[in-house]
Amino acid sequence: MTNNELIDSVSRKKNIPQDLRQILAKGYDLVFVALGTKYLIAAQDALTSMPEETTAFAFASKGSKEFIGDCYWIPATGYERSQLGTTWLELRGRELLRLAKNIENQRNLEQIRENPEGTRYLCTPN
Is the dihedral of CA 81, 10, 12, 4 positive or negative? Predict the structure, then answer.
């Protein structure tokens, strides 16, 4: 059994995908995921069956992209991490914080839903 298979097996035994699916089924418009690789693997099944009305984004490294399911990918790059002299976890947190600070009003939130591919610019330094 590979490490990824072990993570997936343990997450299923602990009902992580099922519990997350129940949470996501509550009808959220937007979801932002800022998890490390092991946690993305544990949540992958739920992220792959995202409710149709939910637009989801995952802040993840290129190596973790395969685990983000139906989420739109917001890359956390090694270049950014080295420039900031930080960890992957802190980089994802900084990107999420930058996004939150750049959402100025309800219209910005609507634009994110209407054009999810264009959201990356709200996460990068100006």
Answer: positive
Q: What CA–CA distance (Å, rounded) separates 36 from 39?
A: 5
pLDDT (tens digit, 9 = 90+) per residue, 23-71?
999 989 999 999 999 999 999 999 999 999 999 999 998 999 999 999 9
- Sequential DSSP letters for 20-35: HHHHHTTT-SEEEE--
The span from the CA of 8 to the CA of 15, in Å, is 10
**Strands, sheet with 30-33, edge to edge from the N-terminal-most edge strand:** 30-33, 55-60, 72-75
Encode burial over 4-15: b for 16+ CB neighbours within 10 A, e otherwise.
Answer: eeebbeebeeee
User: Tokens representing 85?
Assistant: 């002299």
Residue 19: both structure tokens together? 């519990």
Tell me the C-alpha distance between 30 and 56, whole Å.
6
